[in-house]
Amino acid sequence: MQHHSGAVTEHSVSPLHDAALRESAVLDQAAEGDLSLAALIDIAAEWLAEGGHDRVDMLYRTWLAYNSHHPLAYAARFNYAVLLAQRGALRQARDMLLAALTQKPDFSPACINLGSVLERADDRLGAVAAWQRITQRLTQIDGESVGFKTTALNQIGRVFETARVEAPAEAAMAASLDIDPSQREVIQHMVALRQAQCVWPVLQDRPRLSAAAQLEAISPLSLAAQLDDPVLQLANAYRYYLQDGQLAGIGTVGQWPKPAQATARRLRIGYVSSDLREHAVGYLMAGVFALHDRTRVEVFAYYCGPAREDALKDRFRAETDHWRDISALSERDAAAQIVRDGIDILVDVNGYTKDARVRLFGLRPAPILVNWLGFPGTLGSPNHHYIVADANIIPPQDEIFFAERVKRLPCYQPNDGARPVAKMGQTRAQAGLPAEGFVFCGFNGPHKITPDMFALWMEILRDTPGSVLWLLCDAEETRGRLQTQAEAAGIAASRLIFAGRMGNAEHLARYRLADLFLDTAPYGAHTTASDALWMGVPVLTRAGNCFAARVCASLVRESGIPEMVVRDWPAYRALAVRLAQSPAALGAMRAQLAASRDRCAAFDTPLLVRSLQGLYEEMWREYCADALPVPRLDHLPLYHRLGNDPARPALPDRAALLAWYDAALQYRNGVNRLAEDGLLWPGPAVPPRAE
Asked: Is 388 a residue whose pLDDT tops 90?
């Protein structure tokens, strides 16, 4: 038997022994007051890099226990609080930050972080109070304090906006912009908040921020509700991508050798969405995954939304072949997961909406990238190859307004035929409606109501005595603002009836109380239109120039009542008035909706899914044939400058719009020859479309 001495070799144990000795020595230094703050921070960073979270906790606790009155102890508490918050120890982080502020009440970084910690702990009022300590204290703005004050104001605005407390949210963001008007993202939120509150004009000159500058910075969704200009919407989407959609150090994460020919194997389809839950898009998509033919496709869902659970999210999870929650993953980690899954076609069901993962698509984690349903328009990005629509929304002559190649369904928008509807809906009295009289319904969000649209509605009310307009609006200030506008138009405020938010099944049931749905422009009804039509309420709309202005027309036509899509606003007004005065005509239209509901394209989701799978197979064949489209982006910066030109006239119709852009491009081509881009240039203006 081989004998071993009791000695342990230096090679096998020395590093651990030395580490233990060093840790003990460092803690002794901390206890004796011999460890400087700089050394404390450096050693903590070193130990964290080694994974020594417990050692770092002990180090900070020891240093603070023996150095609590050190003049820089507030900084140590702040740094320790950052580490605690990162680990989810929110209560301890809060206590550390409060202790730091007790020692140094004017320590702005601690106020900023305290607000964030309190918000994460669901104490929104406490969070706002923490940030208000900064805004109230920093009355004098200098180079050091400007960043702290704008950050605090933006945080206050964001929390109020999330909580739908819109007026204080707008006030906070406006105050931030008064300090620094160059904050593009803050401009976007302020504009959206003004739209949501029906504060008109939405774009209004401010002392340091012109209305023109606000239009230049506007987000794609807000622009859709502001102007019916498809050229500017395309260019604005591209600009938004350049500013918000790119990922630093971008590079393709996957490589896909093209098959010699399209094979008959199942395609792997991935859907990326934050809205596979109780959300407007979620209600539309419910049932889509279950209807996919599993002999042709394999379905992957990549969820990137809030962590909350609900019944609809459970349904989506159950109806997919593979559910992946990527909400906590970085863009690169999420892309790597998609590559591992071998996705053939990745569908972006967000676009430029809340919680979207636009940068993820920039990593090209699948060979084919598609824009469908989540965002009403082109994304103007170099990444998305296709956009899915229908012939009503994007007729062939309108493809010049889209960077992606257009693929068409019979009807663009899916609808869940199994959606629950409450059996016992509200009575008129419970809904606040009069016992008698015609009920015009406008359940689009207030952000879609423009001054021109509201003025037209007031004309319709004036022409139909005894009628009321039933609007969906929670905010008392916005309700009061609309009532004031009504009275200014000579309409009694009492003729505006307001509905609050409620569960989807109950919301659908209350449509039974409405007689006619009035659509908005330029951003029309989408989910709301299909809800009304499903419940048998005729919808009156005008097809505009842009994607968001034409979805409602598609649904109305494909539901069997194409006569409700009018050519112009005088026709809209005349038809609304005629139907309010013709119960028989309205009854016949309701009967038509009921008769066609189970066989029309608007509600034939099995047909839509079969058609969608056919489009996926077309895309795959084009990819295999090396015919994948290349997004058309060459002149979009120029289009953006033209669309934001202060000299640009108010354009009354599509023909005038295209004629103006054509003339502007002709002029610039005379100065500096423009290469063909496959969109607006070259070529004459497209003639007006026959509705």
From this structure: yes
Cβ contact 466:436 at 8 Å = yes
CA 301 to chain centre: 18
* Residue 184, C-beta contacts closer than 8 angstroms, at least 6 positions apart: 217, 243
- The residues near 641 (Cβ < 8 Å, ≥ 6 apart) are none
Q: Verify that 383 and 436 share a domain, yes or no.
A: no
Do 35 and 170 sit in the same domain of this protein? yes
The CATH number of the domain holding residue 308 is 3.40.50.11380
Residue 260 pLDDT exceeds 80: no
Which is it for strands 297-303 and 565-566: parallel, antiparallel or unpaired?
A: unpaired
**Confidence class of residue 138 from pLDDT cuts 50, 70 and 90?**
low
The single-letter DSSP state of residue 633 is -
370 forms bridges with which residues in the sheet? Answer: 347, 386
- pTM for this one? 0.90
pLDDT digits (tens, 9 = 90+) for 458-513: 999 999 999 999 999 999 999 999 999 999 999 999 999 999 999 999 999 999 99
Number of domains in the chain: 3
Q: How far apart are CA 238 and CA 257, in angstroms?
A: 29
DSSP letter string, 263-317 = -SSPEEEEEEES-SSSSHHHHHHTTHHHHS-TTTEEEEEEE-S-S---HHHHHHH
HEC-encoded secondary structure of 466-479: CCEEEEECCCHHHH
Q: 100 Cβ partners below 8 Å, 6+ apart?
A: 73, 74, 75, 77, 78, 81, 107, 110
CATH of the domain at 435: 3.40.50.2000
Does residue 4 form part of some domain? no
Segments forming the whole domain that contains residue 182: 24-201
Three-state SS at 405: strand
| Same-domain status, 407 and 393 | yes
Residue 451 CB neighbour total at 10 angstroms: 12
Residue spans of beta strands (DSSP E) within 175-296: 267-273
- Total residues found in the chain within this entry: 691
3-state secondary structure of 208: coil
Q: What is 501-528 written as a DSSP string?
A: ---HHHHHHHGGG-SEEEPPSSS--SHH
656 assigned to some structural domain: no
